[in-house]
Specification:
The complex is a heterodimer. Chain A has three domains: about 425 residues, Up-down Bundle (Multidrug efflux transporter AcrB transmembrane fold), CATH 1.20.1640; about 130 residues, Alpha-Beta Plaits (2-Layer Sandwich), CATH 3.30.70; about 150 residues, no CATH class. Helices cover about 65% and strands about 10% of the residues of chain A. In chain A, strand 3 and strand 4 form a beta hairpin. In chain A, helix 12 packs across helix 24 and helix 20 runs antiparallel to helix 21. Chain A is elongated. The two termini of chain A are about 50 Å apart. Chain B has a single domain, classed as Lipoprotein localisation LolA/LolB/LppX (outer membrane lipoprotein receptor (LolB), chain A, Clam), CATH 2.50.20.10. In chain B, about 20% of the residues lie in helices and about 50% in strands. Chain B contains four helices and 13 strands. A 13-stranded antiparallel β-sheet of chain B has the order 6-5-4-3-2-1-13-12-11-10-9-8-7. In chain B, strand 8 and strand 9 form a beta hairpin. Chain B is globular and about 80 Å long. The chains are: A alpha+beta, B alpha+beta. Chains A and B meet through helix 3, strand 4, helix 17 and helix 18 of A and strand 5 and strand 6 of B. Strand 4 of chain A pairs parallel with strand 6 of chain B.
């Protein structure tokens, strides 16, 4: 420690220069960082669910869709149909669009008196109301169109834009969002679908953070100023935070990583947490100055006094964030990596850069070192702890128990749709499509086997029909529907023949016929070797529970219809990926928490060198974690990809308060104070830093309440809440347990003596 | 000075004829290539293997009869395998198409618009099949560029062709023609957007009835990553068949 201290104070200019040069270098790389919302980037590249998903994209053309709903008085008015056609043809021209499915572009298998034709459902746009009526009748009678591309009340039409597998769907969504603004048509347009939501999420999140970040900075600056009442007290912690932020973004740029919805909150985290190390140091520096020490001397003794605690606090925070490295979710791992790096830099800079600057510039003892109101409150608190330790412990445990009862109510939700408020444009569009159509997101079920075998096709038919009967999905489309319609067409349109033929040769020949008639029609539903077929259906309820129901139904019906070993059935689609994400969130959370608690315990044992203090701190942080999840359960806040980060912050940051309190307590004991005296010194001395740090951190995070995204809001509230409990626990619970335990030991000893 | 002029003249006499030693034009090469491949009547047995981008394979064996006289184009395809499509017949008469399904026992017409698409879901379109099989290129394409060059050590003519039909799916064809065999070694088909779209390569060149033919052709779809391999098992340039083969009645007879 002394050597480190000497480097900073003996060569202050060199230290400052090196840090500034590195900051410029990292700053250069920081400019390269871009933003991503691609759901696939949440997964490891070799995850089987991503592989299946990408396979479907390659084998069948597309698996990602942008939905455009068009609302009109009457969809079958010739003018409206013209609008649909206009939009369909315009969107088809855009690069990255594979195909556009709409009323005016879908193909149908037509049996004619002379043969078979695969041609557009609407080959000529109706020009008269009568022709429109004929079309209405035809479309409503067909389950492939009614409720799928035209709502049953014929007021809303759906235009489904299929994205090319190699295209950037989010960028494409942005392009289409702009494009549709230029249409001068009387009908109302609503855009939804995962790529659209992701695009909007990325852009509004950036806007949100740009708006909130300055507010966070201002509030923290204000609190620092109120605390220190001088410029240096604001500037130094701020410089630390900015340096760490630039280095972290620089590292991201250097490694070619992107900002995601997840680590978008990282700047706010670093700004709110990173200033703490500087605060403890500056506080102690002030204390030392007011004891009459010279500038450089004061720096050295402040560093020696609080340095170990800062290192401990920093190391545990790093461990807390590093716990995210245990997640299977790629972006969470990246969040863990970069935030721990940022925190490590923040505390390293606090221990080098701040002392270097302090030893260079003149300083005067802080004006507020005398008795203040907060000082009096802490005095009162210390007295209370020393007199009624037991009641504090009991109240704490009751609080813990009450919140813990909310644990069973905790649920996970990884659905991006829930990131949008009910009255936001994308949510309105999503709800409209959900209400009027059979769904807005697709589930893709891949059946592998001999797809010319009538037995397998019949099984597929049974599977599809029963799955539809559950009401979870709309009309499924697959090879089965194509074969049924071909069979009917080849039998003069006789509805009795709308079946899958029971003859393998006939099936093979029908497939050949369809292939000869239109080569692209079949390729969306079966691979050319007839080994893999896709059943596609739109899903209505895309919530986590809805998806869970869907997957359970698929699993059950799979068992029932495809018992043969030669058949393999797998499901994928964006909603399946989202569901998988939920599962990964929970597993990662459990592993991460266990790691964090063990790591924190080891760091404390190593640096604090006190069994009691280490275990007590870890227990407190365990309590705070339980309170966090319990409150989430009570308030119905789901564990999603943003709120999942809270517990790692809670463990890593919340522990700091315990460390500072206990370090100061041990320092007092070493100086020969008794337990009660040492507790009083710790609570009144360090309590000040803890209180102002907690206020600063909470103020930083509480600003997120003004975010437009519910998960960010929850994040802000919950982090503030656990910071409050962690600080309160460190100021009340830990001292109270310590005092109580000491008096219990004393009375034990007394009893022993008496015996 | 006079000596110099004579020297220049001599040099010119030696050198210039070399430049003009290529007696051929792009059109002449194209005509000669067509003459090698084209026939008024032709019978072929082929195996068509389709390999998708992800490596899945499908194979079909067919017998093909072609007749190409004047404006009239006719093609009859009879499927020989796999077993479940054996006997299926396909007849194309100019723009009209029929299919006979033995399992149904019926002949059905296919809409003419299907001719724009690919042939039997392969990487070859009807347009490609026609040009390569019997109709040739010269009647439907214009030569835009021509030069002599080498391709993998073989002397070739390089031709750039532009389709005359504005409805064609291609904007340009880049052909490498073998200088002695007058067979195309490679054709790169450029799409309407000008980008390379498909690539045809020919292999196993051999003489049949005194004419050079490619024993194996491979068409790659450069965008999708799939390819179709055509193995020619039998070629007959003088099949003894009359026109009644190209009728729906013959189609219905099956094999």
């Amino acid at each position: 420690m002394k050597k480190l201290v000497r480097i900073a104070t003996d060569h202050p200019r060199a230290v400052i220069l090196i840090i500034l040069i590195l900051t410029v270098v990292f700053g250069f790389f920081a400019t390269r960082v871009t933003m991503t919302t691609d759901l696939k980037e949440f997964f490891p590249q070799d995850d089987h669910r991503v592989i299946t998903y990408e396979q479907v994209e390659v084998d069948f053309g597309a698996a990602e869709y942008i939905m455009l709903a068009l609302e009109a008085e009457d969809l079958f008015h010739p003018a409206t149909i013209r609008s649909i056609d206009l939009i369909t043809r315009d969107l088809e021209e855009i690069e990255g669009v594979a195909t556009v499915r709409s009323l005016t572009s879908v193909d149908e298998i037509k049996g004619t008196e002379w043969g078979l034709e695969i041609s557009p459902l609407v080959s000529e746009l109706p020009t008269t109301p009568e022709a429109g009526e004929d079309l209405r009748e035809k479309v409503l009678a067909d389950e492939l169109y009614s409720g799928a591309i035209v709502s049953k009340d014929t007021k809303v039409g759906l235009i489904i834009i299929e994205v090319q597998p190699d295209a950037d769907s989010v960028a494409l969504a942005g392009l289409i969002t702009q494009r549709i603004k230029d249409y001068s048509i009387p009908e109302r347009l609503y855009l939804t679908g995962t790529p659209v939501l992701n695009n909007l999420l990325a852009s509004s999140m950036q806007k949100d953070l740009k708006k909130l970040f300055p507010v966070v900075l201002f509030i923290i600056a204000l609190i620092l100023f109120l605390h220190f009442r001088d410029f240096k007290g604001v500037a130094l912690p701020f410089a630390t935070v900015f340096i760490s932020l630039i280095w972290t973004l620089g590292l991201m740029g250097l490694l070619g990583k992107k900002l995601s919805p997840l680590n978008a909150v990282m700047p706010i985290i670093l700004v709110s947490l990173g200033n703490a190390y500087g605060i403890y140091l500056l506080n102690r520096f002030g204390e030392e100055l007011s004891r009459g020490k010279k500038r450089r001397e004061a720096v050295v003794s402040a560093l020696i006094a609080v340095g170990p605690a800062i290192i401990m606090a920093g190391a545990t925070t790093v461990a807390g964030f590093a716990s995210n490295l245990f997640s299977d979710i790629t972006l969470m791992r990246e969040f863990g990596l970069f935030t721990s790096f940022g925190v490590a830099i923040a505390f390293a800079v606090s221990l080098t850069f701040i002392p270097a600057v302090l030893s260079l510039f003149p300083a005067r003892p802080p004006a507020h070192a005398k008795k203040t109101r907060e000082g009096k409150t802490l005095q009162l608190l210390a007295g209370w702890i020393n007199h009624k330790p037991r009641s504090i412990v009991v109240v704490s445990l009751l609080l813990l128990l009450t919140t813990a009862l909310g644990l069973p109510r905790l649920r996970t939700d990884s659905n991006f749709f829930n990131f949008f408020p009910e009255d936001s444009q994308p949510k309105i569009a999503y709800n409209l499509v959900k209400e009027k159509f059979t769904g807005s997101e697709s589930v893709e079920i891949v059946v592998e086997g001999d797809l010319q075998d009538p037995k397998l096709l019949t099984a597929m038919k049974g599977f599809q029909e029963e799955l539809k009967a559950t009401g979870i999905i709309g009309e499924p489309t697959s090879l089965v529907n194509i074969l049924e319609r071909t069979n009917q067409a080849m039998h003069e349109g006789n509805p009795d023949y709308k079946t899958v033929p029971d003859d393998e040769a006939l099936i093979a020949q029908y497939l050949l016929l369809v292939e000869m008639s239109d080569d692209t029609y079949l390729s969306k539903f079966v691979t050319p070797d007839y080994r893999q077929a896709r059943i596609q259906a739109l899903v209505k309820d895309t919530s986590s529970s809805g998806t869970a129901r869907l997957l359970a139904a698929i699993e059950e019906l799979k068992e029932k219809h495809f018992s043969s070993d030669e058949v393999r059935v797998t499901e994928t689609g964006i909603i399946v990926l989202i569901d998988a994400l939920a599962e990964m969130i929970i597993q990662g959370q459990i592993n991460g928490l266990i790691f964090a608690l063990i790591a924190v315990l080891l760091i404390l044992l190593l640096l604090l060198r006190s069994w009691q203090g280490s275990i007590l701190s870890v227990i407190l942080i365990g309590f705070v974690t339980i309170i966090n999840f319990g409150v989430m359960g009570w308030l119905g806040i789901p564990l999603d990809i943003v709120t999942v980060l809270i517990s790692s912050i809670g463990v890593g940051v919340g522990i700091d308060y315990s460390i500072h309190i206990y370090s100061r307590y041990l320092e007092g004991k070493r100086k020969g104070l008794d337990v009660k005296e040492a507790i009083t010194v710790a609570v009144t001395g360090t309590g000040k830093s803890i209180a102002s740090n907690a206020v600063a951190v909470i103020s930083g995070f509480i600003v997120l309440v003004f975010s437009t995204f519910p998960p960010f809001r929850y994040f802000g509230i919950l982090v503030s809440l656990i910071m409050f409990f962690a600080a309160a626990g460190a100021l009340l619970f830990i001292p109270a347990v310590t005092v109580w335990q000491a008096s219990w030991q004393r009375s034990n000893r007394k009893i022993k003596l008496e015996v | 000075m006079k000596k110099l002029l004579i020297f220049v003249a001599i040099i010119a006499m030696i050198a210039v004829p070399r430049v003009y030693a290529v007696p051929v034009s792009g059109e002449a090469v194209l005509d000669k290539m067509d003459a090698t491949m084209k026939a008024e009547r032709k019978y072929m047995e082929e195996e068509m293997v389709l390999v998708t981008a992800s490596g899945a394979e499908r194979s079909r064996a067919v017998a093909v009869w072609n007749k190409n006289v004047g404006e009239e184009e006719m093609m009859l395809v009879r499927f020989l395998g796999p077993a479940n499509v054996k006997g299926t017949g396909f007849l194309m008469k100019n723009d009209e198409m029929w299919l006979y399904l033995p399992a149904l026992g019926k002949v059905k017409r296919i809409a003419g618009s299907a001719k724009q698409g690919s042939f039997m879901g392969s990487d070859l379109s009807y347009e490609d099949m026609e040009a390569l099989g019997s109709a040739g290129f010269s009647a439907t394409h214009q030569v835009k560029a021509f030069k002599e060059t080498k391709s993998e050590g073989t002397a070739v003519y390089q031709l750039d062709l532009v389709p005359l039909d504005p409805e064609s799916s291609y904007s340009k064809l880049e052909i490498l023609v073998h200088q002695e065999l007058y067979l195309p070694l490679q054709i790169i088909y450029h799409g309407r957007d000008g980008l390379a779209m498909k690539k045809l390569t020919t292999f196993e060149h051999q003489q049949v009835d005194g004419r050079w033919v490619a024993g194996r052709l491979q068409m790659e779809d450069l965008k999708k990553g799939s390819k179709t391999v055509l193995k020619v098992n039998k070629v007959d340039f003088n099949p003894a068949v009359d026109d009644s083969v190209f009728s729906t009645r013959y189609l219905e007879r099956g094999i």
